[in-house]
Amino acid sequence: MRNIWITVSYDGTEYAGFQRQENGFTVQEALEKVLKKLTGVHTTIYFVARTDAGVHAYGQECTFYTESSIPSERFKNAMNSLLPCDIRVLKSKEMYEDFSVRKTNYGKTYAYILSEDKDINPFLRKYVWYTGRKLDLQKMKEVAKVLEGKHDFTSFRGNNSVPADPVRFINEVRIIRKNSLIFVYVTGEGFLYHMVRNMVGAFVDAGRGIMTPERIKEILKAKDRKKLGVTAPPQGLALLKVYFEPISHESINEILNTSYYPWTCL
After folding, report:
1. Where does substrate bind (predicted)?
2. Closest by CA position to 60, among listed 253, 238, 263
3. Annotated active-site positions, please?
4. Is the pLDDT of residue 35 over 60?
5. Residue 91 in contact with residue 63, Cβ under 8 Å?
6. Within 224-264, where are the H helices?
7. Residue 266: per-residue pLDDT
């Protein structure tokens, strides 16, 4: 059995998330539907990140097993010829049979865009959270610094999720302003359901003056989701990169100096 590795980019606006589910069409279903047309049999996609409805990705990493004779490098163009235009396969290659993108990765970088504008830009509305007010960047950075490192992130989980192990390691949080846009980059070894969006919600509260480093420490210690505020909406979030080598400050810089429009502040 052949094991094919593909990197997938998608605009999540019209999808009910990445993972297959009963209610709503997903990116995984779109990929599997195309593979069935190409190979003649149902093919299961295995993936790294279960992005939510409305969340986007530049570098979702996936694998699938197949007995098809299609050359590995041709899967990219073959799949793209059948996929909707809001999903693209960026590359395809054959790997050894027990290779797993989930088991072999070192972590991920997510990006989130905030806008301080009161007026919504119609061209960015699907990719930005419009907060409608000026945010204090320094206070946001101070709260973000507290969340770096290893913590029990129970207070940052999704409302209805109960993780077996809520401890996660965050390598770095970087927050940058460019004009009226604020770019948040979170790099970590792993994330709980809704964790990044809940972190961004806390950063916005800090920017509004209603969240402090001391308060965020108390919330971490409480291990209670109810102690935290709003969850940031999905449209501002994108999975930029999955790392298959140890994460370093230099490797993060390399990603943020790459054009991932509109999520990189170049």
Report:
1. 110
2. 238
3. 52
4. yes
5. no
6. 249-256
7. 56
Answer yes or no: pTM beyond 0.90: yes
Q: How confident is the model at residue 129 (pLDDT cuts 50, 70, 90)?
A: very high
| 110 assigned ligand-binding residue | yes
Sign of CA dihedral 76, 128, 200, 192: negative
Query: Please, which residues bridge with residue 63 across strands?
Result: 5, 46
Over residues 185-244, the pLDDT tens digits come to 999 999 999 999 999 999 999 999 999 999 999 999 999 999 998 999 999 999 999 999
CA dist., res. 148 & res. 169, Å (int): 7
Q: What are the angstrom distances between the C-alpha of 245 and each of 108, 258, 266?
A: 11, 18, 24
Q: Are 152 and 71 in contact (CB under 8 A)?
A: no
Q: Does residue 225 contact residue 155 with C-beta atoms inside 8 Å?
A: yes
What whole-number distance in Å separates Cα of residue 126 and Cα of residue 108?
Answer: 22
Structure tokens at 252: 């993060």
Mean pLDDT of the chain: 95
DSSP state letter for 128:
-
What does the angle CA 61 – CA 63 – CA 67 come to, to the nearest 5 degrees? 160
Domains of the chain: 1-93 (3.30.70.580), 105-255 (3.30.70.660)
50 in Cβ contact with 232 (< 8 Å): no
Q: What gap in Å lies between CA 101 and CA 48, rounded to an integer?
A: 6
Q: CA separation (Å) from 12 to 4, 70, 99, 157, 221?
A: 23, 28, 27, 21, 34
Q: How far apart are CA 253 and CA 234, in angstroms?
A: 24
From the centroid of its chain, how far is CA 186? Answer: 9
State the distance between the two ends of the chain, measured CA to CA, in whole angstroms: 43
Question: Which residue is listed with tokens 């979170």?
Answer: 186
